[in-house]
Amino acid sequence: xxxxxxxxxAEVEALASRILGPRTHPLVLVSTDADGHLLFDxxxxxxxxxxxxxxxxxxxxTATHLLENLLPPKAHAFGGASRCYPADFGHxxxxxxxxxxxxxxxxxxxxxxxxxxxxxRRTVESAPAHRIRRVSGxxxxxxxxxxxxxxxxxxxxxxxxxxxxxxxxIPLMAALVVGRPVSGxxxxxxxxxxxxxxxxxxxxxxxxxxxxxxxVTDLRATVQLHPRVSVxxxxxxxxxxxxxxxxxxxVGDVIRVRVRHEPGRTLALSHADVDPDAPLVPSLALVAxxxxxxxxxxxxxxxxxxxxxxxxASAVAAAPAASxxxxxxxxxHPADAATRADVAALSREIAALRxxxxxxxxxxxxxxxxxxxxxxxxxxLRTENDQLHAKLAQERxxxxxxxxxxxxxxQDRRESGRALRDARRAAERSHVDATADGIRFEIERTWGNxxxxxxxxxxxxxxxxxxxDFVESLSALDESQLSKAVRACVDAIxxxxxxxxxxxxxxxxxxxGGDDAFVVRADGGRCMRSSIEQNxxxxxxxxxxxxxxxxxxxxxxVHHDEMRP
Length: 565
What we know:
Elements: H1 9-20, E1 27-31, H2 42-48, E2 54-58, H3 62-70, E3 82-85, E4 100-101, H4 108-117, E5 132-143, E6 148-153, E7 158-161, H5 172-175, E8 181-187, E9 190-193, E10 208-216, E11 220-226, E12 229-234, H6 235-238, E13 254-260, E14 268-270, H7 310-318, H8 334-368, H9 375-430, H10 436-450, E15 464-466, H11 470-473, H12 479-494, E16 506-507, E17 526-531, E18 540-546, E19 552-559
Helix pairs in contact: 1-3, 8-9, 10-12
């Protein structure tokens, strides 16, 4: 690991002056974790941001505490986190202009995208006004770890769906179904699906539908018809033979249930007497114009996001004064919520037992000195006292076991969540359909990931097309080069490459001399040349045509010494 740049008070003071002073490039600050490790790939940051942004590392502890005192509120980084300060941060030192990235929720690509986005910003006043309207379309896929979705509208355009209007207990991946319709409010290039209240009147008495199992014990199970509608199934509702419920159901199962309307109850369900051939009433939709949230062949995502991982918590513990506002806890997983409820119930039982034990002990003490108390009565009370002691010990043991299971389940889910996130990102980067449609989707996905929501009207995807040789020119690229090439294409289509020095954008000439004529097509198109890689053998370049009217035609990806359009 390379030495940490900032460790001493003098270096911290110089860094603060640099952050708040005039600069020509953004500054990326990466902090170590409590053990002194860098959790973002600093070597890659410095390689890919060469000429675009400066990258500085700082040790968490005394250095980050001092930096916090020298910067405006909430503008520092610590505990393994990173943030990128725009070049003009000193003129408007608002911490919201510099996103804090934790390694548990972001990766090196996110930091690179932040730096790219801060290069050559335009003023908000120059953005054209957009109108808000209601639209509908088809869900094409999820991006950004399932927090956003690509939706093709009825008019053929593609927008990004967000969870801005959804409550915390309804994640976007549960509300939307790939290949199925959705509607909502379109604000600029962002679609906001609207949640709807569960309508249980659609389930007639005796009808069959689907439910999600969220908690299982030997005696009962809890299932959901909707993330906000839970029903308890007793053992006889699950198994006609009344065996352990856990032998029949598991948490996460999507099961068929028969609906019963019983007096005094809103709704009752049964799994034991379902008819496998009965028609199903579709499960409830979670958003307006959306598809049913459950189906027998669709994996069900968690109904709530994971709590903040231990890495972030340990970072706060390592630097207690480094955050002015504590993070709000995330909603718990239903299974964890159930276990926590069991722990709370055991705590209440233990408190009640302590009270009974104290009262009985006092009574024994009082009666022990009374002449009218018989030896038999004292013996009975002592026996009862011993029994309460034993029961209290048993309750304590059960509580400790429940807490241990809760901690183990939370750790397992955190690790599974990290593995799933890493696998999803690796799959997204490694599997690119090398067809025109696949490249178009990759361009739209990369634009959605790299462009902040507030900047999508500033840097929209303009009309573009793929040249006849473009897809074939990508066949020789490896995974990393293809990812860089797609980012360069997005910068060309949005026009952002004109504002990024590292792109080295210029018009292609007919020869190597500075007086040679520019390359111009018969239709008036001008050939442009943009850098995909820097300081690498055979560094790649992007050739594209800027056509009259602003249309972009992506021509080819070539080696740096190839000058043919």
